[in-house]
């Protein structure tokens, strides 16, 4: 199969049940790879590697089809789609997981048929064994830049497999609390240094509404969060941050520290839109012009 996409992602495509202080949605379209690919597609075409079950609604598929997202590696199989139920209380930075049903994920074994493998690869939040399988199949040095994400669920259940993935990636984009848990260090700088020693040259720590910290082989960059008056549903902020960041890197083909700063700013801005509504709803009403406008405002707000 011909592949013209410079970027690919493996992750979850999910049905979520989400409750925030502002409302509840029973069957929301979610998943790490869904948010990632939708956000990345503002910058570059992206290939999505994932699995869904028979219950996966066709309306959700249509949402992905709105954008330049190659779905030829989105497998549909018998069984139920990955399901996540989460809740946010007053601290909107932390999701409480109430239920995780892996469903079709347990039997999933991706088979990649890229004629020309993507140069940029993101191993979004999913079982680290699947992250490793995809990395094996894309192979090095064909994948020029590989980054990953993870969360408490996998840190607790699949730590040895996760550490093996970390040893093979160039970057990690991870939530601050998960970085602390992974490294066993409460201080974020020490946690980042430890994770860096395990593999990734670039360690990018997401701090929710408090912004981002970037460590890149001894260099350091910090960006505040874009101040928002109305945060509605934080689900997917981290994945859309990573999607826009990787999308921008893949579009520019430049992984230098200076360009990474730009990519992180785009990631922050796209994530700031994601949280303004449930599911992918706000991203569906978003265009590059709105992204650039908010980025301009962000530049003014954070320069002195
Ligand atoms: P975040 O960007 O961190 O808010 O990620 C939210 C998305 O992660 C939700 O749409 C969930 O479907 C998905 N998710 C939740 N738990 C897991 C898990 N254990 N593995 C992969 N994806 C998950």
In short:
By secondary structure, the chain is α/β, with parallel strands linked by helices. The protein contains 11 helices and 14 strands. Adenosine monophosphate binds at residues 12, 14, 16, 30-32, 35, 84, 100, 125-126, 151, 153, 235-239.
Write up this protein.
By secondary structure, the protein is α/β, with parallel strands linked by helices. It has a single domain (7-301), classed as 3-Layer(aba) Sandwich (UDP-N-acetylmuramoyl-L-alanine:D-glutamate ligase). It is built from eleven helices and 14 strands. The protein has helices at residues 32-40, 58-65, 128-138, 152-157, 159-166, 176-183, 188-197, 237-252, 257-274, 281-284, 288-302, and strands spanning 7-10, 14-20, 23-30, 46-52, 69-70, 74-76, 83-87, 96-101, 120-123, 145-148, 171-175, 202-206, 212-216, 219-223. The longest helix is centred in the C-terminal third of the chain and has 18 residues, at 257-274. The mean pLDDT is 95. The structure holds adenosine monophosphate. Adenosine monophosphate binds next to strand 2, helix 1 and helix 8.
CATH topology label: UDP-N-acetylmuramoyl-L-alanine:D-glutamate ligase
Amount of helix: 25-40%
Task: Tally the beta strands.
Answer: 14
pLDDT < 50 stretches: none
- The tally of helices reads 11
CATH homologous superfamily caption: Ribokinase
Q: How does the SSE layout of this entry go?
A:
Layout: E1 7-10, E2 14-20, E3 23-30, H1 32-40, E4 46-52, H2 58-65, E5 69-70, E6 74-76, E7 83-87, E8 96-101, E9 120-123, H3 128-138, E10 145-148, H4 152-157, H5 159-166, E11 171-175, H6 176-183, H7 188-197, E12 202-206, E13 212-216, E14 219-223, H8 237-252, H9 257-274, H10 281-284, H11 288-302
Parallel strand pairs: 1-4, 1-9, 2-7, 4-5, 4-6, 9-10, 10-11, 11-12
Antiparallel strand pairs: 2-3, 7-8, 12-13, 13-14
Helix pairs in contact: 1-8, 3-5, 6-7, 8-9, 9-11
The structure holds adenosine monophosphate (AMP).
The site of adenosine monophosphate (AMP) has 18 residues, from β2, α1 and α8.
